[in-house]
Design a protein that fits this description.
The structure holds 2 protein chains of 2 kinds. Chain A contains no helices and 11 strands. In chain A, β9 and β10 form a beta hairpin. In chain A, 0% of the residues lie in helices and 56% in strands. In chain B, strands 2, 4, 5, 6, 9, 10 and 11 form a 7-stranded mixed sheet that branches. In chain B, strands 1-3-8-7 form a 4-stranded antiparallel sheet, with no helix packed on it. Chain B is built from no helices and 11 strands. Chain B is mostly beta strands. The radius of gyration of chain B is 13 Å and the shape is globular. In chain B, β7 and β8 form a beta hairpin. Classes of the chains: A mainly beta, B mainly beta. At the A-B interface, β4, β5, β9 and β10 of A face β4, β5, β9 and β10 of B.
Amino acid sequence: TQLLEQSPQFLSIQEGENLTVYCNSSSVFSSLQWYRQEPGEGPVLLVTVVTGGEVKKLKRLTFQFGDARKDSSLHITAAQTGDTGLYLCAGAYNFNKFYFGSGTKLNVKP
Amino acid sequence: ETGVTQSPTHLIKTRGQQVTLRCSSQSGHNTVSWYQQALGQGPQFIFQYYREEENGRGNFPPRFSGLQFPNYSSELNVNALELDDSALYLCASSLLLGPNLFGNTIYFGEGSWLTVV
């Protein structure tokens, strides 16, 4: 059972386009993390957000934590082929124990 | 390169058998969490070990058990394997400042692919 719902499940876009991925739950998190996972590898942490309403930027990636700490979004500006991968959000119910969403599979075409 | 090493990388077992998966945490980390990732799904939390004690468990049956050693490496044991246990098993290493005190970044290993036939 996934406690976190991610949407869309699949996204295929052209290089240069913008996109937003959403992560939603009915539960409140102490923190939320975003990961990127490539085939055959473990997830790699992109960002941790802790405060409701927090916005963090990582180059072309913008992460937002909802005011109520139940949802989050990841926005990518001018996507590149290197952004292709599975994007996972993970919410912490008890600090360091995380529950993951089922992921958004992003394919950026050249 | 995260400094988290898992072994074996791939293995095939028969239904009913037992398996042990191993994880070496990053140097300086005291906490290891185990996750199961089925094909096309996000990782599911199995349990966490903090300083050799279990520090939280997800919704997995008792046939999933673990250990953490004094050097903070860890093992995941699964008894009476079922076909649905086929998955990627991920180990995540981190430094906790206390059993419920968020420490630093979490690093994942590349996982152990288990196939049960």
